[in-house]
């Protein structure tokens, strides 16, 4: 004897499928809401960036359109007979030189510390050292400025004098070295200490993400600890180190108080980093001249800020292009 299933009305679904269909509909609503929220957050970042750019252009426009004679007559601290371009040029040069020197000093040290924490130090020492390095990022810029202007010069002046006497034939170390120590190399040293925790923290996390398969394979083939790091860890973390260096470079480009408190400023295209009164950075110049600036002077300072904004934007775009060209290893390779 056979039984037949009860007939179903066309266009109706079984009752058992109704809860599942409601769940799928709810999931689609949540996914749609999350997608629009994420899209809005990304659009908000672009909107803020565009708003900053528009603000800088509008506020800097009076100084951009004004001639050098007008700026010299109405702005007390503006160099006589100079144009806005000739005024901004040395500031851009000093900013890039100080940031490049600090990055050159900080990156090798930061990589060494990151490798020691991630692959050499015992776990307890590594956690303590990582915590101490992270604390350096919490120190205010004013404290670094006080340290660099009061404590550091007596220590570094003999070293700078030795550099000038020994390597004075090289343009960077041309003497005589300033007896005050308020020179660009001192600023670069302080900036290097300031960006050190940023580069170290990011590099450490990148090195820790190296696939264990790569490290064990290198050791199994007879490589020493250094050979394993050189052939597996550093190639894997190269793009991350570049990103970390660019983050530190952004901090060095925009640093204000430490540079203002240490450097004896000048408006020259000079590579003499051991002599005072040679260079100045954009951010420090804005902080120094803003209190006594009239409306046109404020516009000129904002024009220099616009130049710094463009420099930072170009540096980050270049860093992203470099990182995008690097292919990270995968643990499955």
Automatic annotation (TrEMBL):
<comment type="function">
    <text>Part of the binding-protein-dependent transport system for phosphate; probably responsible for the translocation of the substrate across the membrane.</text>
</comment>
<comment type="similarity">
    <text>Belongs to the binding-protein-dependent transport system permease family. CysTW subfamily.</text>
</comment>
<feature type="domain" description="ABC transmembrane type-1">
    <location>
        <begin position="92"/>
        <end position="319"/>
    </location>
</feature>
<dbReference type="InterPro" id="IPR000515">
    <property type="entry name" value="MetI-like"/>
</dbReference>
<feature type="compositionally biased region" description="Low complexity">
    <location>
        <begin position="1"/>
        <end position="17"/>
    </location>
</feature>
<keyword id="KW-0472">Membrane</keyword>
<keyword id="KW-0813">Transport</keyword>
<feature type="region of interest" description="Disordered">
    <location>
        <begin position="1"/>
        <end position="26"/>
    </location>
</feature>
<feature type="transmembrane region" description="Helical">
    <location>
        <begin position="257"/>
        <end position="276"/>
    </location>
</feature>
<keyword id="KW-0592">Phosphate transport</keyword>
<feature type="transmembrane region" description="Helical">
    <location>
        <begin position="296"/>
        <end position="317"/>
    </location>
</feature>
<feature type="transmembrane region" description="Helical">
    <location>
        <begin position="129"/>
        <end position="147"/>
    </location>
</feature>
<dbReference type="Pfam" id="PF00528">
    <property type="entry name" value="BPD_transp_1"/>
</dbReference>
<feature type="transmembrane region" description="Helical">
    <location>
        <begin position="183"/>
        <end position="203"/>
    </location>
</feature>
<dbReference type="GO" id="GO:0005886">
    <property type="term" value="C:plasma membrane"/>
</dbReference>
<keyword id="KW-1003">Cell membrane</keyword>
<keyword id="KW-1133">Transmembrane helix</keyword>
<keyword id="KW-0812">Transmembrane</keyword>
<dbReference type="GO" id="GO:0006817">
    <property type="term" value="P:phosphate ion transport"/>
</dbReference>
<dbReference type="InterPro" id="IPR051124">
    <property type="entry name" value="Phosphate_Transport_Permease"/>
</dbReference>
<dbReference type="InterPro" id="IPR035906">
    <property type="entry name" value="MetI-like_sf"/>
</dbReference>
<feature type="transmembrane region" description="Helical">
    <location>
        <begin position="84"/>
        <end position="117"/>
    </location>
</feature>
<protein>
    <recommendedName>
        <fullName>Phosphate transport system permease protein</fullName>
    </recommendedName>
</protein>
<feature type="transmembrane region" description="Helical">
    <location>
        <begin position="41"/>
        <end position="64"/>
    </location>
</feature>
<dbReference type="GO" id="GO:0005315">
    <property type="term" value="F:phosphate transmembrane transporter activity"/>
</dbReference>
<dbReference type="InterPro" id="IPR011864">
    <property type="entry name" value="Phosphate_PstC"/>
</dbReference>
């Amino acid at each position: 004897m056979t039984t037949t299933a009860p007939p179903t009305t066309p266009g109706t679904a079984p009752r058992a499928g109704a809860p599942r269909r409601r769940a799928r509909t709810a999931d689609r609503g949540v996914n749609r809401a999350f997608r629009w929220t994420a899209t809005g957050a990304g659009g908000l970042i672009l909107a803020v960036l565009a708003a900053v750019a528009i603000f800088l252009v509008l506020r800097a426009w009076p100084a951009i359109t004004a001639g050098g004679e007008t700026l010299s007559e109405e702005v007390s601290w503006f160099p006589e007979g100079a144009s806005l371009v000739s005024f901004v040029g040395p500031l851009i040069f000093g900013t890039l030189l100080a940031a490049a020197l600090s990055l050159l000093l900080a990156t090798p040290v930061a990589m060494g510390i990151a490798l020691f924490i991630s692959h050499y130090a015992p776990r307890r020492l590594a956690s303590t050292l990582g915590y101490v390095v992270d604390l350096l990022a919490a120190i205010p810029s004013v404290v670094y400025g006080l340290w660099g202007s009061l404590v550091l010069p007596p220590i570094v002046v003999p070293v700078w004098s030795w550099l000038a006497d020994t390597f004075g034939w090289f343009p960077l170390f041309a003497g005589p070295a300033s007896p005050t120590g308020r020179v660009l190399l001192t600023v670069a040293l302080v900036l290097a200490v300031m960006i050190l925790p940023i580069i170290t923290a990011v590099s450490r996390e990148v090195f820790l993400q190296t696939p264990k398969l790569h490290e064990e394979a290198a050791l199994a083939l007879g490589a020493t600890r250094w050979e394993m790091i050189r052939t597996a860890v550093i190639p894997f973390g190269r793009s991350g180190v570049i990103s970390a260096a660019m983050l530190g470079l952004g901090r060095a480009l925009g640093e204000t108080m430490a540079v203002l408190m240490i450097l004896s400023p000048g408006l020259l295209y000079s590579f003499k980093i051991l002599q005072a009164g040679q260079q100045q950075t954009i951010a420090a110049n804005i902080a120094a001249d803003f209190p006594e600036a009239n409306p046109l002077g404020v516009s000129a300072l904002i024009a220099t800020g616009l130049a710094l904004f463009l420099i930072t934007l170009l540096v980050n775009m270049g860093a992203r292009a470099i990182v995008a060209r690097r292919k990270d290893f995968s643990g499955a390779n």
